[in-house]
Amino acid sequence: MARKQPLDPNASKALIEMKEEISRELGVTNNITNDKNHTLVNEKVEIGGRVGGNMTKKLVEMGEKDLIEKE
Q: Which residues, other chains included, contact 41 with Cβ-Cβ below 8 Å and sequence gap of 6+?
C-alpha cells in the first residue's frame, strides 16, 4: 500500500518548505497556493511537474551526498 505520509512527522513541514523554495527558484510562485492538505496547487499542470521533478532531483542529490559522507 502506498504511503502518503512521511515516516518522520517533522519531515512534512520541511517538504512543504522545499516545495515553496523550488517554486520560487523556478519563478512559478504566481497562481500557486497551499490547499488544506498542504499540496501546491497550480492552474498549469506542467509547472507542478517541474516543481515535483526538481524536488525529486534535490532529494536524490541530498541522499547521495549523505551516503558519500557516511562512507
A: 32, 33, 34, 35
